Amino acid sequence: MKIRFSALDGIRGLAALAVMLLHFSSLSGFVWMPRAWMAVDLFFIMSGFVLMHSYSQKIGGGQLDFLRFYKVRLVRLMPLYIVGLFLGYLSMSYSCSLPVGTCEQNVIPAVVYGVFVLPYFTEAMWPIGVNAAVYPFPLNSPAWSLFFELFVNLIFFFWIAKVKSRHLWLVICLAFFVLVGVYILNGSVNGGWGGNNFYVGFPRVIYHFFIGVLIYTQYQKYGFNSKLIAFISVALLMTAFAFNSSLVSMFSLFILAPFVVLANAKITFNGYAERVCTWLGDISYPLYILHWPIFQLLYVFGHLEHLSPTVRVTVMALIAITLAWLLSIADKNIRAKLSVNSTVVLKAQPEKS
User: Fold this and answer.
1) At residue 164, does pLDDT exceed 90?
2) Assign residue 3 a region: left if phi > 0, alpha if psi is -120 to 50, beta otherwise?
3) Across the chain, where does the E strand assignment appear?
4) Distance in angstroms (rounded) separating the CA atoms of residues 23 and 36
5) How far apart are the C-alpha atoms of 304 and 229, rounded to whole Å?
6) What are residue 133's phi and psi, to 5 degrees?
7) pLDDT (tens digit, 9 = 90+) per residue, 220-244?
8) Beta-bridge mates of residue 133
9) Helix (H, G, I), strand (E, B) or coil at 133
10) Angle, nearest 10°, between helix axes 143-161 and 38-60?
11) pTM above 0.90, yes or no
12) Does residue 320 contact residue 327 with C-beta atoms inside 8 Å?
């Protein structure tokens, strides 16, 4: 029976909006939602939850082999990623010719690496907005999380198929202690997005993804049916995104974010609320994977410099949301066509990536 986790749909959309606002504001010289980077960890938790729901029985029962499983994941993730890569190429081809950048000779190699969702490590400075920095995925920086999503999907498949779902706590504990070590050494677990912190992405995604797997195994027993508790948990997490405190971030990452998924997994809506949650879920991945190159295109070609930074971010955000909505419709059609000849039917459950 198909299950639509409608509350998780809505949360995923809100988290994608928070990431967009963080990036759009910081790339414009100020910061809204300074801790919205935690939304990526929330995405990983939801991914573990949903993939466990959608595929664990088929993988464990031998009905879904590795190639077909990975085909399903690539069909789900890659069409919009390729769109983002193309938009990033268009914007960066121009931006790298500007004095602030040192990347003009690196655009084509970045495209080649990007096609295979591989990081491109170079010392070149890639301009984006008012900033210039070194990015392992320079044409679309948020794609770093897609790399780690595909990586943890490999682990997930072989953990289900070969280990038979055993030793879950061992996996979680090992990843947790590595993350604690990273925090002690660096003072932050917000890594994976940059060349100097790329290694942090491995324990980061493993820990949060398998926390999502753990929540799925327990949510029927320990989950809540209270919409009030669910709402309060989401409100607290969104507040934490805007609260620039390391202590609050650690509490949110390791306690509040998992609790949000647990508290909302059983929550369903009807009527208008359900439509809003579904819409937010539909635009979440397009908005997340495309907002960075959309910003760069609007920044270099939109001639919005006469607007104040706040108004500029607002205008860009509205444009990005509209494009994400339109592309979410196109993406559904493309994925349906790509899946026609597959022996695996794509599930309708919400998926983050």
Assistant:
1) no
2) beta
3) 126-128, 131-133
4) 9
5) 42
6) -155, 175
7) 999 999 999 999 999 999 999 999 8
8) 126
9) strand
10) 30
11) yes
12) no
